[in-house]
Structures are given as structure tokens and as C-alpha cells.
Amino acid sequence: MKELFIGIMSGTSLDGIDAVMADFSAERPALLAHAHQPYTSTLREELSALCASGPDEIHRSQRAAIALAHISAELVSGLLAAAGLSTRDVSAIGCHGQTVRHIPAEGYTLQINAPSLLAELSGIPVVADFRTRDIAAGGQGAPLVPAFHAHMFSDAIRSRVVLNIGGMSNVTLLAPDEPVRGFDCGPGNVLMDGWIARARALPYDSDGAWAESGTVDRELLDHLMSHPFFARQPPKSCGREQFNLEWLDAFLTGRERAEDVQATLTELSAVTVSQALACAGFTADEIAVCGGGAFNAFLMHRLQAHTSAEVFSTARWGVAPDSVEALAFAWLARRTMRGEAGNVPAVTGARGPRILGAVWPA
User: Fold this and answer.
1) DSSP state of 233
2) Per-residue pLDDT reduced to its tens digit, 300-338
3) Which domain holds residue 343?
4) The domain that contains 157 carries what CATH number?
5) Closest CA to 139 of 177, 174, 104
6) What is the pLDDT of residues 4-38, one digit of tens each?
């Protein structure tokens, strides 16, 4: 008998929403359908603006949450149609929401979401608000995906890294007969996307071609690498609060070629991952990349240049890189519905295992 859950994820890259339908009746989840809805430029700009203080934030954030719920409901409808299923077939939807603040040091994280509305629109129970319970228990609330990575990708022989490159980058360290480890590494796509949007009015650097046309500015890279986050020991997580264009601007003279800045930001994303693995004392046989960064050919090339491990997309392991995080939140929703903990205390720093999220019935 099938055990069906939907996962909906919108990450800090602000590119759009990914949704998956998965069957958890076997040990390894089966991905039945995937859908993606890019944000309109208007919604992307609004969500980006909500990541910083501004006028009428409460009203604007609630309007954005309503818009996200309607997009999510349309994606759910599309998944059901693609899989030939009805709402009665699905146990629950795990909906992450859009992060606009992540400040665990002050005891909170905030994801814009409207789970009540999504439950009304979809006719399916919704699990949401995954991160706050871990933070209440003294954790970082992130990353939450290592538990799923361990379930999905652990190997009895090889030491593996699952590297998620969204707006930020995070790693899961999987070694035979060792507890799972994981932490945020720093900026993934957020600075690269922000810089090309400013300089060339493009949403992202396709295949990293623009970065590849430039030259790394070593002095600028050294300045960026001096951020104290990179020297911190895990557990640790980060967000747009630390890594944004205003932070970058403080190190620019105005004389840099725009493509050289892009090359430097790409190198920053690659080298901070390799540095983080070295600081963790982890030697990997394989590094499987998911998230939007897996589609950046030049970034993948630079990642390979900084490690002796083989670097490739999670597609090699049977899961498309743009489906992994959404699949993880479907899996986390299933654990919530079963009354099972979803966090890894050694990863987040929480005082112990916790059941994550809350449930909004259909």
C-alpha cells in the first residue's frame, strides 16, 4: 500500500518553489512527480525586500504568504494530476515556507507561510513551521536535511558528502559506522545571483559562463574569507543576515571588473566548502551536489578543483538535484505525522531529538 506525501520547498535563493510527490511505503522513497514554479519578478523583489526591515512589513508579509499558498496549491494540483491521484490518497504536505529571517542567536527564525490557507485550498493536511522547535531546544534550526540525507544516501563502504547549494550552502557528512554530521558552509548562490542581477539584470549566471569569463580577485577573496562565520566551529547556520550585497559592497573599490567580482564570488562558494570539510577533518570519497548550484557547470568545476573526491550531481544517485530538498521536507512531514523526531541534535546543537513542525488538518 502506498504511503504518499508531498514536499514543498522554497529556499534562500528566492528563485521559486519546488514540489514533489513521493511514496514512502518502501525503505527508499520513490519520487512520483516533481514540479517547479519560478517566482515572478514582482514576488521575488517583494520577498527579497522582506528579508530586511521596511515599512508595513506585517501587511506585506501576510500578502506574500497568501500568494505563496496559492502557488503551492496550484503545484499540489499539478502533482496530483501528473500522478493520477486524488487528495484522499495523500497523507500530508510538508511545506517549508520562505525564510525571511534566520537569527538563532536571538532565538528565532521566520518562514513566511500560510499553512491554514494551503490546507483549505488543497484539501490535504499540512505540516509546517519545522525549524522553530529545534531553536526552542537551543539549536540552530538548520540544517534540517542531514537526517534525510543519511536515510537516503548513506553507504556502507564510501565516505560521502551531500552538498546542498541553494542561496546558502550546507553539507552532510556520511561515513560508514559514524554518526551523521552536518552544518552550513556559507553563501551558495545568494551573492552570485545578487551580483549578476545588479550588474546585468539577469536572475542567475547560466552555467557560470559569466564567472568563467572573469579572473578571481585574490585580494577581494581574502577580504570575503575574513568573515568570522567561516572560522566558527559547528553547529552553525547562516543566512542573508550575514551574506548579502551590502556586505560585499563594503569590500569593493569600484574599480573592479564586474565579471571578476562574479568569478571571485563563485570561487568563494567553492573554497568555503573545501575549507569547511578540511576543518571538520572529513575526507570524502564522493561529493554529491544538489540544489541550484548543481546546474552551475563552472561552480562544479571549481568545487572539483578544490578536492580529490569525485564531484557530481545527486542525479547519479537517482534523485534530481532540484528535488532533494522538497523530498526532504516530505520525509520530515511524514516523521511529524508519525510522532518521530526530525532533527539531528549533533548537527543543529539542540538539547535533544524533537518532533518538528505543527499540523494543520485538512
Assistant:
1) P
2) 999 999 999 999 999 999 999 999 999 999 999 999 999
3) 4-141+324-360
4) 3.30.420.40
5) 104
6) 999 999 999 999 999 999 999 999 999 999 999 99
Residues 245 and 345 both lie in one domain: no
The partner residues of 31 in beta bridges, in order of sequence, read 22
C-alpha closest to that of 129 among 104, 105, 154, 112 = 112
Residues 162 and 131 in one domain: no
Q: Cβ distance 294 to 311 under 8 Å?
A: no
Grid cell listed for 40: 515572478
Strands 181-187 and 286-290: unpaired
Three cell numbers, residue 109: 527564525
How many residues are there in the chain? 362
Indicate whether this model's pTM tops 0.85: yes
The amino acid at residue 288 is A
CA gap 269, 189 in Å, rounded? 8
Find, among 9, 2, 92, the residue nearest to 328 by Cα. 9
Chain segment 81-95, per-residue pLDDT in tens: 999 999 999 999 999
